[in-house]
Amino acid sequence: METDVIAIIRPQCSPIAHIISYVANELQVPLMSFASDATLSSIQFPFFVRTMPSDLYQMAAVAAVIDYYQWKIVTAIYVDDDYGRNGIAALDDELTARRCKISFKIGFRSNAKKSDLLNLLVTVSNMESRVIILHTGSEPGLKLLSLANGLKMMGNSYVWIATDWLFAYLDANSSVSAETINAMQGVLTIRPHTPKSKVKSNLVSKWSSLSKKYYHSDLRTSAYGFYVYDSVWTVARALDAFFEDGGRISFTNDSRLRDETRGTLHLEAMSVFDMGNKLLNKIRNVNFTGVSGQVQFNAQFELIHPAYDIISIIGNGMR
């Protein structure tokens, strides 16, 4: 931020996104973020632009599945951080709107020990609801599914619905062990819908050939990768429109930014982007078809028309 920044692309991690949003607001720099945390919004952070669907839409999709099968109560397991707590709060609201509810919520630390996770699962097995929503990251989520499988909690008497962390793991890994796949048989998950297109297939093909050439392996991408790719092009298109409309790059030092502790932050070196609002408006008006689908924002800087694929883990893959 000391080098005169006019736009930021990232982060995905919700706690970091909250911190950077304050900086982006102060310096009037558009922040193109992949953080799905529904509590991050342009109402609080005017320069925050979400370039993938928020958890409000993801949890609406999960709630729609639950409502479709007429399950009235569910159990929620989540990682106890901003991402997990805020996601489950959004799910609670969506279920309430459909006259369903979470009868039991249980959180755990991301670095929880195996014994803690086993105790958690034993507690869940004694609950009334056998419909379980799993909202975590990939590492603890896979560990929980493996332990649940060992406790015979993956049978016909249980329903497991994993949020989008599971699709991201499966899409990004070309080879998943048979043991891992066996531990998640019958699990439902959801994936942001990215329609088939020539530009999308061309990107996947090019990405595959480049990864084999430079990394000697097939580094796969997921829907997240498509949103990242479109985020870069969104800024590029907005900059074109910005310059065509007489925009210029200039900065002003903010006298309020001072590091009183004389540390290493060098706050006094950071500058405000003079035409940040103008670039933000150009981003708001972007409208094109990208690899993730239609790229267009509503008044709250959220993508319009988000949709999800419902995926079941069966056999060696996804259906």
Automatic annotation (TrEMBL):
Q: Name one GO molecular function term.
A: G protein-coupled receptor activity
Q: What's the chief localization of this chain?
A: membrane
Q: Which UniProt keywords apply?
A: Glycoprotein, Membrane, Receptor, Transmembrane, Transmembrane helix
The membrane topology of this protein is: Multi-pass membrane protein
Q: Where is the signal peptide?
A: none
Q: Which residues form the Receptor ligand binding region domain?
A: 2-315
Write down the superkingdom of origin. Answer: Eukaryota
One of its Pfam families is ANF_receptor
What's a single GO CC term here? membrane
| Subcellular location(s) per record | Membrane
Q: Which PANTHER family match?
A: OS06G0188250 PROTEIN, RECEPTOR LIGAND BINDING REGION DOMAIN-CONTAINING PROTEIN
Q: What protein name is recorded for this chain?
A: Receptor ligand binding region domain-containing protein
